[in-house]
From TrEMBL:
The lineage of its organism: Bacteria, Pseudomonadati, Pseudomonadota, Alphaproteobacteria, Rhodospirillales. It comes from Roseospirillum parvum. One of its GO terms (biological process) is photosynthesis, light reaction. The keyword Signal does not apply. Bacteriochlorophyll a binds at residues 40, 50. GO terms for cellular component: plasma membrane; plasma membrane light-harvesting complex. GO terms for molecular function: bacteriochlorophyll binding; metal ion binding. InterPro entries: Antenna_a/b, Antenna_beta_dom_sf, LHB-1/5, Light-harvesting_complex. Its main location: membrane. This is Beta subunit of light-harvesting 1 complex. It is found in: Cell inner membrane. Antenna complexes are light-harvesting systems, which transfer the excitation energy to the reaction centers. The chain crosses the membrane at residues 29-46. Belongs to the antenna complex beta subunit family.
Length: 68
């Protein structure tokens, strides 16, 4: 009779290997999503995605007009 350690699925992984792979994959996906969330917050703080009352104004261009 086969033991559970020797039984493999269609992927060729044992139950323990599949659980280990799933844990690493889940942690990697959560880390990636955290980095994406931080990047979006920083981008929002730099330049909001939706225009305010002034519309799409380039603040830097207006502040540097004294050089011209």
């Amino acid at each position: 009779m086969a033991t559970t350690e020797n039984v493999t699925s269609s992927t060729g992984l044992t139950e323990a290997e599949a659980k280990e792979f799933h844990a690493v994959y889940s942690q990697s996906a959560a880390g990636f999503l955290a980095v994406c969330a931080v990047a979006h917050v920083l981008a929002w703080m730099w330049r909001p995605f939706w225009p305010g009352a002034e519309g799409w104004v380039m603040d830097t261009a207006q502040n540097l007009t004294f050089l011209a």
